[in-house]
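hiii so my PI (J.) wants the whole complex modelled not just the main chain, which honestly fair. so below is everything: two entries, each one labled with what it is. i double checked the lines twice but i was tired so who knows lol
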Amino acid sequence: MKTKDELTDILDFIAEYATYMLGSGVHTSRVVRCSQRIGVSQGVDVQFSTFQKSTILSVRDEGSREVITRVVPIPALPISFQRNADLGALSWEALDENLSLADIRRKYELLISKPHIHPMIVLLTVGFANASFCRLFGGDWIAMGIVFISTLVGFSVKLRMQAQGLNHFLIFILTAFIASFCASVSLFLPCTSETALATSVLFLVPGVPLINGVTDIVEGHILIGCSRLVNAFLLIICLAIGLSATLLIMKEGLV
Amino acid sequence: MMAMDIILDGFFAAVAAIGFGAISDPPLRAFPRIAILAAVGHALRFCLMHYAGLDIATASLCAGVTIGMGSLWLGRGAHCPMTVLYIPALLPMIPGIYAYHAVFALVMFLQSLRDSVAELHYMQEFLVNATVALSVIFMLAVGATSPIFIFKHRAFSLTRRRDRSKETK
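here's the output for the full assembly
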């Protein structure tokens, strides 16, 4: 049987753990499973409902039958597959090794303070990725070079704007405009200019929320799945607005 | 020549998957597996579309299922959940050209509201391209997720380090 303080500590930790995972782009059923696994390791039953911005968690002690509930906001964090894998592994470790709550929290703090991949490495790999994408869509070598440079410019401007804390819809519109405008240089060169323009903005496609949204829906978490899809579509609309601005300026060269 | 086309398609898909995956901060141990899955998936879709005459949505579904099964198989060795491997591997298959044509047709539709022939042409272009783009994304995600329903137990314990023969739950 647990005291109310012990039960509250468990709830507070699971609330932080679950919302961190949800904020890092983990699909819902996995967050529920991992949180419940940690609950089992601590001898409590965990149930929760989740929405786009907040989560409602209940923890029940089987011994005393006491139940505590909390509503917790979901933080806006960068998507991280590293955290997804590590925090999932932590839930298994907690269960298999019978870790105490203090040990789980200590390991959790270590895992979430691991460094992310360096932005300069990400910048270069995204440049090569988008150039390869251009090639997959039938682009030639000149178009690939233009897409590579446009992506470097667009992505570095995006990083700079994110560091300034600008609204993310605005960031998507401006980045899509800048990247596609740089790629419109291809209209004046002998190359597959349409492919270059089309692929220059594709690094902005929010692939993770799109796929997570469909995954949530097919796994029965329809409300949050739709929320994720709506969110992704808003970003795609912003991308389309930025691209449309370039197309309007350059449409004479494209029709 | 045919083999070269397939190899090049797989190679560029692997580079694209690694780059787009890097935005989402995967563990370093996942990168080689992401590259393999993306190359196999994209090359398979390329073959199905160009040599077997399949449409892009059905070919994407087949590629999605292959990537999903592959992530289940490779996830155990890297202690990575399936999503960490299959989401970056699916990204090079996002139908960017169709999405671009849909946006371009929408812009041109709005520019030609007084010309009924052009108006109809661009609206048709918009609907065709948007439908293909949405269907392909849906098929990819459903295809890659489907192995989770078939191999539930294995899919849910990929990050577990203890030997499965000693399972307690």
